[in-house]
UniProtKB/TrEMBL annotation, chain A:
Residues 1-27 form the signal peptide. The keyword Kinase does not apply. Gene3D superfamilies: 3.40.50.2300. The keyword Signal applies. The lineage of its organism: Bacteria, Pseudomonadati, Acidobacteriota, Terriglobia, Terriglobales. InterPro entries: ABC_urea-bd_UrtA (IPR017777), Peripla_BP_I (IPR028082). This is Urea transport system substrate-binding protein. Keywords: Signal. PANTHER family: ALIPHATIC AMIDASE EXPRESSION-REGULATING PROTEIN, PTHR47628. It comes from Granulicella arctica. Pfam families: Peripla_BP_5.
Automatic annotation (TrEMBL), chain B:
Pfam families: BPD_transp_2. GO terms for cellular component: plasma membrane. It comes from Granulicella arctica. InterPro entries: ABC_transp_permease, ABC_UrtB_bac, BCAA_transport_permease. This is Urea transport system permease protein. GO terms for biological process: amino acid transport. The lineage of its organism: Bacteria, Pseudomonadati, Acidobacteriota, Terriglobia, Terriglobales. The chain crosses the membrane at residues 20-38, 67-93, 149-170, 200-220, 232-260, 266-287.
Length: 401, 303
């Protein structure tokens, strides 16, 4: 009797196992995992949290239209904690443990630089949604944000056109601002302008007192600011407290968009300038649909900005590339992505270039009291992405294998 | 801007930075300097003060909201400090390394708590209208100098807090107990001083002052879950350079750090100024390991 019971138990156990395995195999067949890796805490959370949201919106939309290759996309969300080392760890975790087919994420160049070797080592693919300083080109990253010749240099051209030729360069102390300012300096000097000063604050720094004194002494026509994250709140608060208004000395920021303006309080940055490849105020059909869908999911007070749109279109392009390639293999996907041709998006018609960066139109805008940005200028058509500025990095070109 | 104006401006900036540091370090000077408790959660008391003043400004509007906010920040973080003392610190007196670990844990919990409650994005306290603007000089040798009211206000708050603390320690009965406990705990206890109550009071006052620092800082920078982390190292640095247990030394050290860093920042950059400051402190500690002002501690046997 006892023996029989044991045998029965054994049989039941084996049966259950078989059932479990087949169920899990079945489940695996129906879904595909992708990583979403952004800072949900720390100084960068002010900017990155919403990029995560727009990425999830795109995943929802792709799933609603039947998924990719018949599979439902399941996002695995990880927090990079504004710390490059954690970004690198989490990227590895996503690829190795979660077995994601691709990762959407990153904001600071430091986080991207930290993740880069991980994606190269595991032959995986990262979709990076933010403007960056160039001087990098990896076949394991799809760079959908602006290259220097699509954001900072058009902004400089615009400032020179307006007669603002004495430029003060201010940034957070890490790779993007330092490289961006290197490129800007070369172009300012070449075009007969003056570099009135160059200063850096630690990422997350809150004290700008000495820098504001230096700005007052230097008397520039414009401040080009690559200050990142919520340090911007301290900078603008202290600038205003020191009696410097935007009409006296305008600031052109490359890290403040609608989301930051909203979080900081629009009055704080009212009248300052910014340059991006997308503003919420752009009027095209796809943009209106995008705004409506986002607000339906995240509340009607939500605002949209450039990196969010790039986080959104990255997913759509990835899905389109997977369909074209007929596979989730990163190598096949990235090649398919550059051969997709133009796709309509909230940014207008977009297309990846051979070097895995996006063709984009550059805009310069001014922040309005309601936190929206009024377009003052736009480039003639989409600019070809060029990660290696010819003046700052002579002789280098981007060739992806 | 003339040279005088620049120098005067930087001295003002130095006092401004120094005054914030002093507000943070004063509380630490009480707990670390007088009670030998290494409170790693002190920075989070600053954060709590910042969030409390944010909440207070949401509740009370009008020109006086800020004073209410300061009061709220002080009382709230003092109560939190008292809770911390009763539940954790009290059981770990005389075990500095254990307090370090335990309070570090508390600091992480508080950071995560703030993140869950208020979100990862910093919140802002908008200074009331009467603090908008600055004292500006348009003529004479100080032309171009402007001193924001907000920064002047913070300096005034610091001076008032420092004055009140000094009075408290030098003139009140509890201050007398505090000094007695600091000099010789057992003897004070034998003479009938309720040392446990003294410890509780001192610790709560210390965290309350840190809360005030948070409310002051909120006027010029955003309040984030990690705001305390930016300041805790400097607070320890100020207390150690000043000399353990000496409020006067702490004051001198805070001004010294503020003035040096704002002077060096003028000639170099912010990051380099930090490096310079740390090197200076390392050299200073080599020659004066007990800080600027050496106060006798209750642990004379150790000295």
């Amino acid at each position: 009797m006892n023996q029989m019971l044991n045998r029965f138990k054994q049989l039941a156990f084996v049966g259950c196992c078989t059932l479990l395995i087949s169920v899990s195999c079945y489940a695996q067949d129906q879904t595909v995992k992708v990583g979403v890796l952004h800072s949900l805490s720390g100084t960068m959370a002010i900017s990155e949290d919403t990029v995560k949201n727009s990425t999830l919106l795109a995943i929802d939309q792709v799933n609603a239209s039947g998924g990719v290759l018949g599979k439902k996309i399941v996002p695995v969300i990880e927090d990079g904690s504004s710390d490059p080392a954690i970004f690198s760890q989490k990227a590895q975790k996503l690829i190795q443990e979660d077995k994601v087919v691709t990762v959407f994420g990153g904001w600071t160049s430091a986080s991207r630089k930290a993740m880069l070797p991980v994606f190269e080592r595991f032959h995986s693919l990262l979709w990076y949604p933010v403007q960056f300083e160039g001087n990098e080109c990896s076949s394991n990253i799809m760079y959908s944000g602006a290259q220097p010749n699509q954001q900072i240099l058009p902004a400089l051209d615009w400032a020179f056109e307006k007669g603002k030729k004495k430029v003060f360069l201010l940034g957070s102390d890490y790779v993007f601002p330092r490289t961006a300012n290197l490129i800007l300096k070369k172009h300012i000097l070449k075009n007969g302008g003056v570099v009135a000063g160059e200063e850096y604050v630690p990422l997350g720094g809150t004290d700008f007192s000495a820098i504001i004194t230096k700005i007052k002494i230097a008397k520039p026509d414009v401040v080009f600011s690559t200050v990142n994250g919520d340090s911007n709140v301290s900078f603008f608060k202290q600038l205003t407290a020191a009696g410097i208004t935007q009409t006296q000395l305008p600031v052109m920021s490359f890290s403040i968009a609608e989301q930051e303006a909203k979080a900081m309080g629009p009055s704080l940055v009212n009248g300052s300038y910014t340059a991006w490849n997308y503003f919420q105020s752009l009027s095209n059909v796809k943009n209106k649909e995008f705004i409506a869908a986002y607000k339906a999911k995240y509340g009607k007070d939500a605002v949209l900005d450039d990196p969010m749109v790039h986080g959104y279109i990255d997913v759509l392009i990835w899905a389109a590339a997977v369909k074209k390639a007929g596979s989730f293999d990163p190598n096949a996907v990235r090649k398919a992505a550059t051969q997709l041709g133009s796709i309509a998006s909230p940014l207008g018609d977009i297309k990846f270039a051979e070097n895995q960066s996006l063709y984009q139109t550059a805009y310069v805008g001014q922040l309005q009291p309601d936190g929206q940005i009024k377009v003052l200028w736009q480039s003639k058509g989409a600019l070809h992405p060029d990660p290696y500025d010819a003046l700052a990095f002579p002789g280098k070109t981007c060739v992806v294998k | 801007m003339g040279h005088f104006a620049i120098v005067a401006g930087q001295i003002f900036n130095g006092f401004s930075v120094g005054s914030i540091l002093l507000l943070i370090a004063l509380g630490l000077a009480l707990s670390f300097g007088l009670m030998n408790v290494i409170n790693m959660a002190h920075g989070e008391m600053l954060m709590v003060g910042g969030y409390l003043s944010y909440l207070a400004c949401k509740i009370v509007h009008g020109p006086m909201s800020l004073l209410f906010a300061f009061l709220f920040a002080f009382v709230g973080s003092a109560l939190l400090g008292a809770l911390l003392e009763v539940t954790i610190i009290r059981w770990l007196y005389g075990r500095p390394l254990d307090t370090l670990l335990a309070t570090w844990g508390v600091s992480l919990i508080l950071q995560q708590g703030a993140r869950s409650l208020f979100g990862p994005i910093g919140v802002e306290v908008v200074a009331p209208a009467w603090l908008d603007g600055a004292v500006s000089f348009n003529h004479g040798f100080l032309a171009g100098l402007s001193m924001p009211y907000v920064r002047i206000f913070i300096i005034v708050v610091t001076v008032v807090v420092l004055g009140l603390l000094t009075l408290f320690i030098a003139r009140t009965r509890w201050g007398l107990y505090l000094r007695a406990v600091h000099q010789d705990r057992e003897m004070a206890q034998a003479l009938g001083v309720n040392t446990k109550l003294v410890d509780l009071l001192v610790f709560s006052v210390g965290t309350g002052v840190a809360g005030l620092a948070g409310a002051a800082l909120a006027l010029i920078a955003p309040v984030t879950p990690t705001v305390g982390q930016n300041y805790i190292v400097y607070a320890f640095l100020v207390v150690i350079v000043g000399g353990l247990g000496s409020l006067f030394g702490t004051t001198l050290a805070a001004l010294f750090v503020g003035l040096i860093s704002s002077a060096v920042q003028m000639f170099t950059s912010v990051s380099l100024a930090d490096v310079f400051l740390l090197v200076l402190v390392i050299v200073f500690i080599q020659f004066r390991p007990r800080g600027i002002i050496f106060a006798r501690s209750r642990n004379m046997k150790e000295a």
